[in-house]
Design a protein that fits this description.
Length: 212
C-alpha cells in the first residue's frame, strides 16, 4: 500500500520534471531566437559593410575622376598659355622683321604703292588728313604732296598727324571730315596677318603631335 509520503514524493518528482522540461523548452526557444537574431545581425553587418565599401569605392572613383579632370584642365591651361607665348614670340619676330624692312629700298616702293592705291580709292575729295611717323614724313612728304596735287588736292588741304610708335611704319589716310579712313600702317598689316600666323602655328603643332 502506497503511503501519503510516497504519493507526495512521486507528485513532487512529476511536477519537477514538468518544470524542468518546460524550462529546457523555453531555454531552447530562447537559444534558437538568439541564434536567429545573431544571424540576422551578422547579415545586417555584412550588408552595411558592403554598402560602406561600395560608398568608399564610389567616393574613391569620384575623387580620382575629380583629380584627373583637374590635372587635365591644368594641362590644357598650361598648353594654352604656352601656345599664347609662342604666338606672341612669332608676332614679335614679325615686328622685328618689319622694323628691319622699313630701312630697306623695298619699303620705299611699298609705301608709295600703298599711298597710290589709297588715292585711287579717294576720288572727288578736297583734302587729306595723313597720320604718319615723323621719320617717314621727312622721307615721303615731298612725294605725298606731289601725288596729292596731281589729283587736284591743294597743299593747304593736306594736314599731318604724328603717328604712334606702334605703327612701325606705313600710313593712315582719311578725308578731312574723318568719315573715310584707310589704314595702311605696318601694325595694321601685322594684325591682319595674326590670324594667318596662328593658323600656321597650329598646323605645325599638329604635325608634331599637339592636337590639343
Amino acid at each position: 500500500m502506497v503511503t501519503i509520503e510516497e504519493k507526495l514524493s512521486l507528485f513532487s518528482k512529476l511536477v519537477y520534471q514538468d518544470i524542468l522540461n518546460e524550462s529546457e523548452k523555453k531555454i531552447k526557444e530562447i537559444e534558437e531566437k538568439n541564434a536567429r537574431l545573431i544571424e540576422e545581425y551578422r547579415k545586417e553587418l555584412i550588408e552595411k559593410s558592403k554598402q560602406i565599401t561600395s560608398n568608399m569605392d564610389r567616393k574613391i572613383e569620384q575623387k580620382k575622376s575629380e583629380m584627373l579632370s583637374k590635372v587635365k584642365m591644368e594641362a590644357k591651361q598650361k598648353l594654352l598659355s604656352k601656345k599664347e607665348e609662342l604666338l606672341e614670340l612669332l608676332i614679335e619676330e614679325q615686328k622685328n622683321k618689319a622694323k628691319e624692312f622699313i630701312r630697306t629700298d623695298a619699303y620705299v616702293l611699298f609705301f608709295k604703292k600703298n599711298f597710290e592705291a589709297i588715292l585711287n580709292e579717294l576720288t572727288d575729295i578736297k583734302g587729306l588728313r595723313i597720320e604718319i611717323l615723323e621719320r617717314d614724313r621727312k622721307i615721303f612728304q615731298d612725294y605725298i604732296q606731289q601725288a596729292a596735287m596731281a589729283r587736284g588736292i591743294p597743299l593747304e588741304n593736306i594736314s599731318y598727324l604724328e603717328g604712334s610708335k606702334g605703327m612701325i611704319g606705313g600710313i593712315i589716310v582719311s578725308n578731312l571730315e574723318g568719315t573715310i579712313r584707310y589704314d595702311a600702317s605696318i601694325s595694321s598689316l601685322l594684325e591682319d596677318k595674326k590670324a594667318f600666323i596662328m593658323e600656321r602655328m597650329y598646323e605645325e603643332l599638329e604635325k608634331v603631335g599637339d592636337i590639343g
